[in-house]
Amino acid sequence: MSELINAELSSFVQKKSFAQNMMDIALLSANTNQLRYVIDLGNKHPYYTTSLLLIIVSLVMQVVVGLSMLYVNRQVQYNMKSRSEMKAASHMNNLSVAGVFMVTLVNVFISTFNGAGVAPTTTLPDTGSAGLNVSNPSSEIALP
């Protein structure tokens, strides 16, 4: 009976870890996109330094939390033999949950300082005149 319970617990922990890791990857991807956006804007971003710092802190925290989750998953999967090991794994799991909460909190602040309304300046490639008369809006494109 206890082997069945351990197998079910192990299966649950594996599925939970997989789901958490997929969420971590999505958040990591979003943060790297935000980092690119802030770097593209540079000093034109109204909260450049604040946003840059918060995004870097979030990325570092995500890596640390991800590594702790891998450690917890490995401990639960292979080393659950005594009560003290279960207690240590539970403690580590609680720390990783606290880490996820902190990452979420930092990302709320990132969203607050996202610089909405500021668009990156991009230049369009020069296509030449291409037969378009810009001064006369009713003109059509001349075909060669």
UniProtKB/TrEMBL annotation:
Gene Ontology cellular component terms for the protein in this record: membrane
Superkingdom of this protein's organism: Eukaryota
InterPro entries on file: Ninjurin
Transmembrane segment boundaries: 52-72, 93-113
Keywords for this protein: Cell adhesion, Membrane, Transmembrane, Transmembrane helix
Protein's membrane topology: Multi-pass membrane protein
Localization of this protein: Membrane
Gene Ontology biological process terms in this record: cell adhesion; tissue regeneration
Homology family: Belongs to the ninjurin family.
Name this protein carries in UniProt: Ninjurin a
Organism the protein comes from: Anopheles christyi
